């Protein structure tokens, strides 16, 4: 069962407030699919059975999540841990606080930075306030919702979930985890934004939460490279690679999605009013 959204750009507040309702939709998809292959409610379509399934939109998760552009991920073998921490010495106090005790970077962090230095991360608001940024975000979320609707529904033998249903569920639970939203401008320090958000998510320590950072002025290929060299690899050095899922993706515009301790979709009663 999938809710239908009209194709115009929603106001940002409507889209953000609608996110909790997806919990009911995604958790009940399998249950309702076993009962019917094409559902309608009050004249509103939930999707349609198609004789020839359309190709599903590209996944924003999985092992190839950061190679969604036409070019492969850049070779980052020459980006060493020592070089990285030498170049980011101002961030050492924060890296030291975030790092796990037995991480690869333990020696590098011990021998660098003044322990008395203050963190350089910035506590950012959880959503933009500028009208232009809200417009970017509204268009992105509308595109994200549309990409969910574009995942075909197929009638699997025995009513079992197929790859498309799994794709729908996986994208949906990631969308629901996002609680913080940012739009970067050409003057934004993207590294500072990403790591300030990582620090926020880690120190708040609330599972199944995340941040979305739109980067309209950067190509997806460049964003892939940034995520690989400035976020994914350092997270591994700090021992945090199993706690965070990082994806560079594109819907209406390129974006970085940071998810902290992503959880499975919870079992939810067949009562959407619980999320009102």
Automatic annotation (TrEMBL):
Annotated segments matching region Disordered: 44-66
Signal peptide, first to last residue: 1-23
Source organism superkingdom: Eukaryota
Keywords of the record: Signal
Name assigned to this protein: Uncharacterized protein
Taxonomic source organism: Fistulifera solaris (Oleaginous diatom)
């Amino acid at each position: 069962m999938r809710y239908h959204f009209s194709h115009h750009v929603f106001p940002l507040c409507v889209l953000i407030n609608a996110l909790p309702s997806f919990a009911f939709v995604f958790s009940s998809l399998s249950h309702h699919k076993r009962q019917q292959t094409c559902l309608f409610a009050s004249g509103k379509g939930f999707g349609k059975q198609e004789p020839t399934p359309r190709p599903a939109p590209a996944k924003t998760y999985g092992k190839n999540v950061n190679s969604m552009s036409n070019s492969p991920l850049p070779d980052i073998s020459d980006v060493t841990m020592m070089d990285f921490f030498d170049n980011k010495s101002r961030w050492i106090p924060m890296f030291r606080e975030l790092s796990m005790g037995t991480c690869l970077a333990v020696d590098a962090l011990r021998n660098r930075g003044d322990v008395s230095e203050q963190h350089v991360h910035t506590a950012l608001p959880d959503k933009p306030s500028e009208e232009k940024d809200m417009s970017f975000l509204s268009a992105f979320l509308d595109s994200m919702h549309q990409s969910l609707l574009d995942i075909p529904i197929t009638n699997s033998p025995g009513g079992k979930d197929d790859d498309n249903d799994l794709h729908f569920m996986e994208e949906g639970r990631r969308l629901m985890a996002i609680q913080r939203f940012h739009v970067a401008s050409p003057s934004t320090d993207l590294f500072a934004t990403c790591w300030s958000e990582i620090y926020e998510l880690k120190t708040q320590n609330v599972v199944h939460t995340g941040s979305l950072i739109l980067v309209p002025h950067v190509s997806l290929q460049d964003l892939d490279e940034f995520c690989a060299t400035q976020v994914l690899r350092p997270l591994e050095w700090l021992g945090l690679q199993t706690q965070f899922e990082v994806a560079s993706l594109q819907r209406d515009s390129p974006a970085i999605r940071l998810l902290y301790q992503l959880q499975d979709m919870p079992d939810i009663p067949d009562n959407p009013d619980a999320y009102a």
